[in-house]
């Protein structure tokens, strides 16, 4: 090769490199993606996350990469939104763009895109609207549902008295109480606390939530195509969820056989009537798969969220008996020993209201929220998030945002009290999420928390065999759901 040809090839290579980097730089400027830590092949950023408290990991990462950054869960790119202002901008100010639900493999294997929580598009819109309207018809948000909760609270008090002041695990007592409220709506009846079939059902629910929140559940959701073929505890998730689905199917079959179209007894009856009305519409969303998936959504959410919050709350009170003493004083002064608590009493009980809010903030029930997906390309905080990208609006970073809550790692009812001891709202209180995907059972959850919490403290004093200083209120897991450490308490009649 002569010198002229070599020089020509060299110049051509230099020009090509220059053009390549020029084009790349231009594209980068036009399509600036969120920053983030360097991922490893196949496993992504898995090793850089604390498997027990991913929300805290995200907050630490945001200190370096900012409130909008990207991670790789295995090979999947996920954008993390951190902090109240950032999450608010996405879920409220840009609600439509951030409104779709991201994939949740653990639940998708049972929901298959139907129902409410795991669906999108027109299916989600119709199921959510129908559920809201029908639940209202059965009393949600009205005095009638509050009366059901008060009645269930009395059943719970009777059950707690049978413990005779001895230590017990409160998990299933609280599960049964909260589940009976939603069961009375969707199934038309409550269950006795010694009903073995009901206890078996709740055991499956408890097991599935624990497994989904564990490292096994995380691995399954990140590496589904591989993990579904491997042995391990994660395989029990499907078994537990299938058992709950079978319970729902039996209830649906019973309702089909005994249906009176003029007298709907519960949510299932109402849905079956709607199915009959639309049976000639081939494109109708009212079919058996959506019925089962919607009832499953309501049962799972209506049972787990409130019961776990209460269980975490009572553990916190064992840690801080001085807070319980103040609660007893306010409850005795406002209600006395005889008057059953009603939601309207909250305005007269600012300290109690503040403690319940602080329990919800501190326990951080859904630290990662449920995953969202953007519906279109969007410029957000100076970065491009492409259509179809999974987004995690971290609720942990909202409820523990130091700009919104002073010293957020400490349990302090003062976060919701002003200088005069009056209850103080805080817009960063997003315990039920926000925007188009806000929890549709928020009003039910608020009422249950207040009535059950106050009823127990009105009737009992909480005791523990462990000294307060030795009680650990850090979560066992804080991933899909924040689960408190297992503990036992005694309830002593007042």
UniProtKB/TrEMBL annotation:
<feature type="binding site" description="axial binding residue">
    <location>
        <position position="439"/>
    </location>
    <ligand>
        <name>heme</name>
    </ligand>
</feature>
<dbReference type="GO" id="GO:0005506">
    <property type="term" value="F:iron ion binding"/>
</dbReference>
<keyword id="KW-0560">Oxidoreductase</keyword>
<dbReference type="InterPro" id="IPR036396">
    <property type="entry name" value="Cyt_P450_sf"/>
</dbReference>
<dbReference type="InterPro" id="IPR008067">
    <property type="entry name" value="Cyt_P450_E_grp-I_CYP2A-like"/>
</dbReference>
<feature type="transmembrane region" description="Helical">
    <location>
        <begin position="6"/>
        <end position="23"/>
    </location>
</feature>
<keyword id="KW-0349">Heme</keyword>
<dbReference type="InterPro" id="IPR017972">
    <property type="entry name" value="Cyt_P450_CS"/>
</dbReference>
<keyword id="KW-0812">Transmembrane</keyword>
<dbReference type="GO" id="GO:0016712">
    <property type="term" value="F:oxidoreductase activity, acting on paired donors, with incorporation or reduction of molecular oxygen, reduced flavin or flavoprotein as one donor, and incorporation of one atom of oxygen"/>
</dbReference>
<dbReference type="InterPro" id="IPR050182">
    <property type="entry name" value="Cytochrome_P450_fam2"/>
</dbReference>
<keyword id="KW-0479">Metal-binding</keyword>
<protein>
    <submittedName>
        <fullName>Cytochrome P450 2A13-like</fullName>
    </submittedName>
</protein>
<dbReference type="GO" id="GO:0008392">
    <property type="term" value="F:arachidonate epoxygenase activity"/>
</dbReference>
<keyword id="KW-0472">Membrane</keyword>
<keyword id="KW-1133">Transmembrane helix</keyword>
<dbReference type="Pfam" id="PF00067">
    <property type="entry name" value="p450"/>
</dbReference>
<keyword id="KW-0503">Monooxygenase</keyword>
<dbReference type="InterPro" id="IPR002401">
    <property type="entry name" value="Cyt_P450_E_grp-I"/>
</dbReference>
<keyword id="KW-0256">Endoplasmic reticulum</keyword>
<keyword id="KW-0492">Microsome</keyword>
<dbReference type="GO" id="GO:0020037">
    <property type="term" value="F:heme binding"/>
</dbReference>
<keyword id="KW-0408">Iron</keyword>
<dbReference type="GO" id="GO:0019373">
    <property type="term" value="P:epoxygenase P450 pathway"/>
</dbReference>
<comment type="similarity">
    <text>Belongs to the cytochrome P450 family.</text>
</comment>
<dbReference type="InterPro" id="IPR001128">
    <property type="entry name" value="Cyt_P450"/>
</dbReference>
<dbReference type="GO" id="GO:0006805">
    <property type="term" value="P:xenobiotic metabolic process"/>
</dbReference>
<dbReference type="GO" id="GO:0005789">
    <property type="term" value="C:endoplasmic reticulum membrane"/>
</dbReference>
């Amino acid at each position: 090769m002569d010198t002229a040809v070599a020089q020509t090839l060299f110049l051509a290579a230099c020009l090509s490199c220059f053009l390549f980097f020029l084009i790349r730089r231009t594209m980068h400027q036009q399509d600036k993606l969120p920053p983030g830590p360097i991922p490893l092949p196949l496993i992504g950023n898995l090793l850089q996350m604390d498997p027990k408290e991913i929300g805290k990991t995200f907050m630490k990462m945001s200190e370096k990469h900012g409130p909008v950054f990207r991670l790789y869960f295995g090979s999947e790119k996920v954008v993390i939104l951190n902090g109240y202002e950032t999450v608010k901008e996405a879920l409220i100010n840009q609600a439509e763009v951030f409104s779709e639900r991201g994939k949740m493999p653990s639940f998708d294997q049972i929901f298959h895109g139907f129902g409410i929580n795991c669906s999108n598009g027109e299916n989600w819109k119709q199921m959510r609207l129908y559920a809201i309207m029908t639940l209202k018809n059965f009393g949600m948000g009205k005095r009638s549902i509050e009366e059901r909760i008060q009645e269930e609270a009395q059943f719970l008090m009777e059950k707690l008295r049978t413990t005779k002041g001895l230590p017990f695990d409160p998990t299933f007592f609280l599960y049964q109480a909260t589940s009976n409220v939603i069961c009375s709506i969707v199934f038309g009846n409550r269950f006795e606390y010694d009903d073995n079939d009901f206890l078996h059902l709740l055991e499956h629910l408890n097991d599935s939530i624990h497994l989904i929140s564990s490292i096994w559940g995380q691995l399954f959701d990140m590496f589904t195509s591989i993990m579904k073929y491997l042995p391990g505890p994660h395989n029990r998730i499907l078994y537990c969820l299938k058992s709950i689905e079978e319970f729902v199917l039996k209830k649906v079959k019973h309702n089909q056989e005994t249906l009176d179209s003029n007298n709907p007894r519960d949510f299932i009856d109402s849905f079956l009537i709607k199915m009959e009305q639309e049976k000639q519409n081939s494109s109708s969303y009212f079919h058996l798969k959506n019925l089962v998936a919607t009832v499953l959504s309501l049962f799972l959410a209506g049972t787990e969220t409130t019961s776990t919050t209460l269980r975490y709350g009572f553990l916190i009170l064992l840690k801080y008996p001085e807070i319980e003493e103040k609660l007893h004083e306010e409850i005795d002064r406002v209600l006395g020993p005889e008057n059953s608590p009603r939601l309207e009493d909250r305005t007269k009980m600012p300290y109690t209201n503040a403690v319940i809010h602080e329990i919800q903030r501190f326990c951080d029930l859904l630290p990662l929220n449920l995953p969202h997906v953007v519906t279109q390309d969007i410029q957000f905080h100076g970065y491009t998030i492409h259509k179809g990208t999974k987004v995690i609006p971290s609720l942990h970073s909202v409820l523990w945002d130091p700009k919104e809550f002073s010293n957020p790692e400490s349990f302090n009812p003062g976060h919701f009290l002003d200088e005069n001891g009056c209850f103080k709202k805080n817009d960063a209180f997003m315990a039920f999420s926000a925007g188009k995907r806000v929890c549709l059972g928020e009003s039910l959850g608020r009422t249950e928390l207040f009535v059950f919490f106050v009823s127990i403290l009105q009737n009992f004093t909480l005791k523990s065999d462990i000294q307060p200083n030795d009680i650990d209120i850090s979560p066992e897991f804080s991933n899909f759901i924040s689960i408190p450490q297992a503990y036992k308490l005694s309830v002593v009649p007042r």
